[in-house]
Fold these 2 entries.
Entry 1:
Amino acid sequence: MKRILVALLFAATSLVAAPQAIVFDFGGVLTGEPNREAVVAFIRDSFTLSKEEFEIAQQEKRLFLKQGGNDEAFWLSYAKTKRIDLPSDWPDSFQAILKESVGVNPRMFALVEELKAKQIPVGLLSNIDARLAKLIRNFGFYDLFDPCLLSCEIGIEKPDPKAYQHLLDHLALPVEDVVFIDDRQENVDAAREAGVDALLFESEAQLRKELAQRGVLEC
């Protein structure tokens, strides 16, 4: 009987102490290394471009993007200019290779889903440029996170202390109720200085262990 009471007391204590929100960084935590080479290979194969020809086209694309265009529109325009007939499904294939190139880690996204199934709010705080953020959002990779705070939209980059205060303001939770996960030590250190329980991401297994110790997941 005594053991049961101790176990119940421990469980109750863990429940009270458990974090009320988990916040992730994106690149390097929810993804592996981006696979830009796959996109380059797809484009060079689509247009039969040498390395030098590809680099020249890339320079043209940068100007096109500065004028408000996007990658797909540029390459379709390039094909028209060069009188290259692309397969009708080329845009779909291009989007598929772009999505793959982001390098999302399905095991980490499964972990996010697991946390949400436990009714734990899951947020995102990520340093990213507007062009890449738009691409990732279009693929739906941000849909799981609330709040989804991107440096290109909030005008603050980690490890600026204001980024963490901005996060706390959105969560409307005491600082001790938040766990933040990042793969960069400087961002983790800055979060800790702000009073946040911050974890340096090394692997999914390591993170699961850390979250289990905080009463979020079962061992």
Entry 2:
Amino acid sequence: MQNLPPPEIYALEEKYLPWGSVIADVADLVCQWAPHYGRVLDMMCGPGVLLERLAKKRVDLRLHGVDQEPACADYAKKTFGFEIDCADARQWEPKVPDPFDVVVCTAGLHHLPYADQKPFIGKLKSLLKSGTGTLIIADPCILPFRTEKERQTSSAVLGHATLLATIESEPPREILDAVIGILRNDVLGVEYKMSAVIEERMLKKHFRHVISQRIWPNDDPRFHGDYIFLAHD
């Protein structure tokens, strides 16, 4: 992870970025698919915003989070009372070999280098209950690209749309600064956003059933924006 904002800014982004509606929809999906007293793992959980939503919506769920940023783990503990394993999600292994009913990864996949993304999806599947587990991945996706120039252009298109939508919400200056930082990271290749078509294809290498839905924007015919992918066998 590089050039991430402080966890308090990261948590505040949910209120101003279009991404906030994705978090709400993911929480609803987790509650729909998790059985009573189910085990839910939030990989690359950041400051714990999704976990906090889930804890309020389903008090029965057994929640666990993993994030490699110590500042995020500390924030989640101090703000919400969650114990977060501070570790690289690619190498993390549960202390107790008890599979999860639902594994979630929101806005995390694009932080991993392209070569690591497909193996990481395989790792997430290995943490699920065989046959009954559900994986939910939410990620901002750019337009398909073939060259580095196309990747940069696609990143700039998404970043510009996100910035304009955020400005409409009249955010504080530090939120705008964070969104501009995201655009910069994407264009310069510090983050690794992929097209929705490729993400769905990677998931289908590991799961028999994959459903994708674009949450934002609603008025753009091009296939970029914030997506949710639900996968299970």
